[in-house]
Amino acid sequence: MSFLKPRKDDHPKVHEAYEVMKDGRMDRREFVRVAALVGVSAGAAYAMAGIPSPAWALENSPFPADDPKAKKGGKLRVGMQVQKMEDSATYSWVEMSNQSRHVVEYLSMTGPDNITRPMLAESWTPSKDLKTWTFKLRKGVMWHNGDEFVAEHVVQNIKRWLTPGLGTSNVGLATFGAMRKDSGKKDAKGKTIMVGIENAVEALDKHTVRFNLSKAVLSVPEDCYHYPAAILHPSFKKPLSDNLIGTGPYQMTELEVGKKCVLKRVTKMANGKPFTYWGGTVYLDEIQYYNFSSENQLTALASNSVDAINEFSIEQMALATSLPIDIHPARTARTLCCRMQISQKPFDNHKLRQAIVTAADNAKIKNLVYPRGGDVGQNHHTAPVHPEYFALPPLKRDVAKAKKLLAEAGYPKGIEVTIDVGNTDGPWHQTVCEALRDQVKAAGINLKINVMPASKYWEVWDKTPFGATAWTHRALGTMVMGLGYRTGVPWNETHFASKEFDAALDAAEATFDVEERRKKMEKVEKILQDAAVMVLPLFRPVYNASSKKVRGYTMHPTGFHQFNKVWIA
């Protein structure tokens, strides 16, 4: 397929990326991702890269094309954990967002092909220095109560995210972090209070929003699809489930936490007028979520209790392949982070942490749990699937060195520590911890495993001194690094803080050329690895499944559900 040259009026970064791609220093699909970020339509970006457009590359829509064979109507029953919905800005797990994803929507949407397209936004245009981003919003989008969706609604949401004390993970992302500054004040715990910068976000007119950032950020559209970044109606009050007004094709009619969540297609607005969904044809009449733990979802599908499931674990692959179902795999950056909170004893001792990670063999743990598929982790949070991943030298287990470090830490006769694990997306979490336990024992570290219910683990995941926390996939390594390890952000469960790390991450986030960004990520990854705050042994493939009668059901690497074009045969 021949290349299509960028237009003269395309963003300078598109022309730069095109030359980098032509020189062989950027993968073609990475070029498509980058070109789409700076405002090129997905279809044009694929043409410039000289590769065919997939179904997810429609013009002016984030959704796939209509299937000419599709039938309207029917109910899709999905097996997934049904969770409470207090405030989308403080969602702590994907399942919560899946329950509301078809009701409240996002400015952008990153598809299964890792390309980000406009959603509630119609387009975006960054400045040459990537500090100013102008979003044109779709016109005629209506809220379920009859209000028109306008720019001021976006402004109100983002200003709320920047409010000190809210605790939204959004501020850990490069985009919204670049909208904050140090207030010069401290909270009761002595932490710096961050506030929004002046004119961080502004409505230029009824359908135009401008982001004014303090630094260059390339990932703005991708950050806008972070699952806590849903745009809520101005009338929002907690809990969200009691007043869920959206712009999406469905409304929630029932929520019983731990049991059931029902979404029904919207036909009329609250004012009695017909509701016309901006996103085109939607086929299902209802989406019904039924509560099943991850280990029980496949058996629910096998027994016809549900039509599709959120995911199943590698331990169940033999059963899955024996059933007359469709299996949907994805290579991902999902992982289990066995992390230590360095503000709590004994994990405030760097040499102790070093002893633990040095006594571990990540490759053996990965091969034990995922003998086929997946990638070995290197005790930082960037995965081989991420475009900016830098391959550090392989980690080597060294029991003698671990013993020496343990003695230097003040524990020459050994130490006993406990790790909390909730098996929040499968018993493989416990298997990882058991393998780690058996490995570190040789160095004199007695690791006890406290297995607790998944719901209980999510109550303590950011508080426990030593915990095994599941992290979902993100499109970029810089995104997860910012969410989890930037100083003072809400999801920094290790309490790691390093000005050097923050500065190195800032530099990587602002670098356009993927090869140059990868070089800068070497420092980011090495700082975190040397801090020894975690044993992160693997990145896992994921699988979901559906009945043969369900069409259009896919596996998004982050586990996001977007069932607009799903239908029942």
Structure, explained:
The protein is 27% helix and 22% strand. With 569 residues, the chain is α+β, with helices and mostly antiparallel strands. It has three domains: 12-49, no CATH class; 58-324 and 548-569, D-Maltodextrin-Binding Protein, domain 2; 331-541, Dipeptide-binding Protein, domain 3 (Roll), CATH 3.10.105.10. The strands form five sheets. Strands 1, 10, 11, 12, 13, 14, 15, 16, 17, 18, 19 and 20 form a twelve-stranded mixed beta sheet that branches. A four-stranded antiparallel beta sheet has the order 4-5-9-8, with helices on one face. The longest helix is centred in the last third of the chain and has 18 residues, at 514-531. The mean pLDDT is 93.
Topology overview:
Blueprint: H1 12-22, H2 28-37, H3 42-49, E1 75-80, H4 94-100, E2 108-110, E3 116-118, E4 121-126, E5 132-137, H5 151-161, H6 174-177, E6 180-186, E7 192-196, E8 201-205, E9 208-212, H7 220-223, E10 250-256, E11 260-265, E12 286-291, H8 297-302, E13 308-312, H9 317-322, E14 325-340, H10 350-358, H11 362-369, E15 375-376, H12 399-408, E16 415-421, H13 428-440, E17 445-451, H14 454-460, E18 466-471, H15 477-485, H16 499-509, H17 514-531, E19 534-535, E20 538-547, E21 550-551, E22 567-568
Parallel strand pairs: 1-12, 1-13, 16-17, 16-18
Antiparallel strand pairs: 2-3, 4-5, 5-9, 6-7, 8-9, 10-11, 11-12, 13-20, 14-18, 14-19, 14-20, 15-20, 21-22
